[in-house]
């Protein structure tokens, strides 16, 4: 082996000298040049030796680099691997739920959730030109108006209630048209849900029992959450909420068993976050119950109503270049609507006659820094993180979602954001037939549109026996997502990702 190595090296040296000599001798012969002694020494001796030294140096450098790399690999193999960072703790209360015992809605396309859902899926729900609302050029605009609405009756009832509370309050300035229509819509939903509460088996026993024995009956307290327009003053919102509480009592539920939950007027809170707070406060945090089963009865009525059919609102939107009109084809259309949910623990839901226990899971809510109305690229990563967080809270795989209900319309920014989120987080859903945009068919109505989308999700989940996802991206900055699913539906827990784990942290 050693002799063979020396022979190879000797042959290589001889080859270098031979090639060099042949090359220069041929050059000198061709150029008729007679080399002197310095040429012979330089080109026939020194140059081959320098070439051999260069080859030897390159070889040594390669060997040293290879040895250093091998040494580093050996050292790395002997060093113990660092421990993988622990997965952030996912709080047990993020798995809490409430059962949707009943739901109701009012929309420009009708009052039946199943019919409205079918119209939206077929894209048959369309807005009409409203002759009562015009832009600055005098042209009528597209709007979602509810025809059969007893505004005068609601106004009379509300003013009579105000006068009974305080004569000074009844002398307040005349309410705007949109304000009165909102009150009428909220009253309709409250009365309908109040009728559903009458099915509770303990109600008759409670009303017939002596006053000192009523607490032993076990009739639950109803928590009334009224989500009214944020542009209203705080006093107006509080008065309207108290009025709705009295309407609930007029339907037959004891007034002392109704608690009106205050909603701070100046608090910029998404409607889904209010619902999330209902779930979060429905039980003791120390109980750590991940299911809908509660140790104590819980019953809540959430009502949202809003009407944007007002000249002042239309003028404001047009000034802000947010109105879809003759001079702008990228805005939104005013609408109106109302929706409500009865949320309860499983026992109360069954007592109220719920055939299928449909669960409402915790909300993932966040705020984007860049407005969706600002020019530039539309990104869907933020909304995707919220959706992944909502799916993780619900323990539902993306493939299990049967319907995607949104509160947005056909504006390019909202549509592109939904499409990017769908491709990223819900790759198996058909955005053409399994995604409905409530704002496109009913107009923009704030919290009422968000709540109506949840009612559609509840209706679809109950009918299909599958989970439904409700996403809110109509607002320029606010984003939210909630999952609705039947309690007994098979669901695969989605694999937690760092983004999904961090999403609930963005929830206020």
From TrEMBL:
Region (Disordered): 484-508
Sequence intervals crossing the membrane: 12-28, 40-58
A single GO molecular function term of this UniProt record: acyltransferase activity
Keyword Ribosomal protein in annotation: no
Compositionally biased region (Low complexity): 489-508
Region forming the signal peptide: none
Keywords from the named record: Membrane, Transmembrane, Transmembrane helix
S-adenosyl-L-methionine among keywords: no
SUPFAM superfamilies for the chain: Thiolase-like (SSF53901)
Protein name (Swiss-Prot/TrEMBL): Transmembrane protein
């Amino acid at each position: 082996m050693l002799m063979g190595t020396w022979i190879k090296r000797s042959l290589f040296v001889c080859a270098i000298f031979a090639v060099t000599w042949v090359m220069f001798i041929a050059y000198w012969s061709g150029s008729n040049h007679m080399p002197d002694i310095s040429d012979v020494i330089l080109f026939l001796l020194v140059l081959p030796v320098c070439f051999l030294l260069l080859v030897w140096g390159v070889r040594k450098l390669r060997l040293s680099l290879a040895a250093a790399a091998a040494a580093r690999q050996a050292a790395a193999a002997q060093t113990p691997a660092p421990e993988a960072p622990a997965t952030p703790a996912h709080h047990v209360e993020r798995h809490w739920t409430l059962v949707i015992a009943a739901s109701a809605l009012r929309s420009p396309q009708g009052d039946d959730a199943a019919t409205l859902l079918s119209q939206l899926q077929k894209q048959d729900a369309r807005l009409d030109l409203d002759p009562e609302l015009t832009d600055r050029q005098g042209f009528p605009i597209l709007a979602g108006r509810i025809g059969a609405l007893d505004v005068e009756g609601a106004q009379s009832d509300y003013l009579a209630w105000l006068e009974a509370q305080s004569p000074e309050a009844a002398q307040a300035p005349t309410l705007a048209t949109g304000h009165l229509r909102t009150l009428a819509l909220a009253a309709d939903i409250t009365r309908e849900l109040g009728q559903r509460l009458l099915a509770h088996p303990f109600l008759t026993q409670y009303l017939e029992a002596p006053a000192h024995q009523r607490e032993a009956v076990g009739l639950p307290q109803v928590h009334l959450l009224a989500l009214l327009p944020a542009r209203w003053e705080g006093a107006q919102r509080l008065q309207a909420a108290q009025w709705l509480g009295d309407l609930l009592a007029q339907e037959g539920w004891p007034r002392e068993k109704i608690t009106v939950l205050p909603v701070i007027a100046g608090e910029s809170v998404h409607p889904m976050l209010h619902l999330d707070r209902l779930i979060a406060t429905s039980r003791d945090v120390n109980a750590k119950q991940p299911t809908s089963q509660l140790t104590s009865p819980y019953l809540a009525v959430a009502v949202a109503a809003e009407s944007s059919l007002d000249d002042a609102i239309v003028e404001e939107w047009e000034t802000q270049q947010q109105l879809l009109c003759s001079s702008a084809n990228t805005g939104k259309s005013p609408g109106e609507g109302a929706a409500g949910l009865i949320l309860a623990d499983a026992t109360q839901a069954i007592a109220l006659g719920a055939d299928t226990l449909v669960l409402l899971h915790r909300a993932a809510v966040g705020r984007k820094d860049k407005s969706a109305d600002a020019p530039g690229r539309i990104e869907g990563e933020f909304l995707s993180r919220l959706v992944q967080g909502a799916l993780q809270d619900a323990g539902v795989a993306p493939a299990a979602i049967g319907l995607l209900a949104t509160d947005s319309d056909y504006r390019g920014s909202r549509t592109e954001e939904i499409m990017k989120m769908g491709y990223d987080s819900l790759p198996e859903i058909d955005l053409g037939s399994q995604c409905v945009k409530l704002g496109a068919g009913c107009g923009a109505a704030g919290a009422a549109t968000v709540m109506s989308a949840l009612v559609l999700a509840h209706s679809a989940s109950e009918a299909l026996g599958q989970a439904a996802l409700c996403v809110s991206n109509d607002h320029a900055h606010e984003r939210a997502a909630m999952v609705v699913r039947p309690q007994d539906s098979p669901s695969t827990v989605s694999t937690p990702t760092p983004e999904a784990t961090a999403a609930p942290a963005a929830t206020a």
